[in-house]
Rhamnulokinase (Faecalibacterium prausnitzii), 251 residues
Amino acid sequence: MQKNYLAIDIGASSGRHIVGWMENGVFRTEEVYRFPNSVRRVDGHLEWDIDSLFANVKQGIREAFAKYPNIESLSIDTWAVDYVLLKNDQPIYPVYTYRDSRTQAVIPEVHSILPFAQLYARTGIQFQPFNSIYQLYADKKAGRLTEAEDFLMIPEYLLWKLCGVKAREYTNATSTGLVNAQTGEYDPEILKALGLPEAMFPKLTAPGTVLGPLKADIAAEVGGQTKVVLCATHDTASAVEGIPMEQGDAP
């Protein structure tokens, strides 16, 4: 029986569901669903419609099962740095986008606590004003972290909603500017210095980990059952992984 795999790739302007399979030694793909994604401006801030995103994720899975009833596994990648704060396993709104300007005011304060040279030495992550480290510090200053109990990057949030298992994937976590390049885990010294709650930043999980099956209610809604896998949830990392190169190919 042909094994089909569903890749859900979501960017800042659109998302797509692509089914892939091997056929006579060739990897074939078919796009089965595409949907628009865009930021919305509310009260002077830019935010994502996370509920619409999840609805489209489910609709695309439904479309995939309608055409390919046997799907071996699925996974989701998205852009980096953005996240969902949770309380009682419910999102804390708004879910800000990396394009929102709220980080500008806190960057000097972050760098007064931890100079960028020190951050770079520990994480290896270049400066971008939208990096999660600045977004989270802005949330702390706004009091949002006192309310929050958990924190998931956007693709891990969507995967959790599908299967009920929370994971913090390594490649996407590195985009936060909070992961120590030597240990490969969230850096407790950075978290402590910035007053970010360490309990919200547990151990990271490697891409390729099988999280589990779709939740029963989700499987019933989309018309099929499959394994949910944690891919390299940062879309750039997944793109690099997909390059058909082997050791020694590069000049």
Residues 101 and 245 are 39 Å apart (CA to CA). The longest helix spans residues 50-67. The chain has one domain: 4-241.
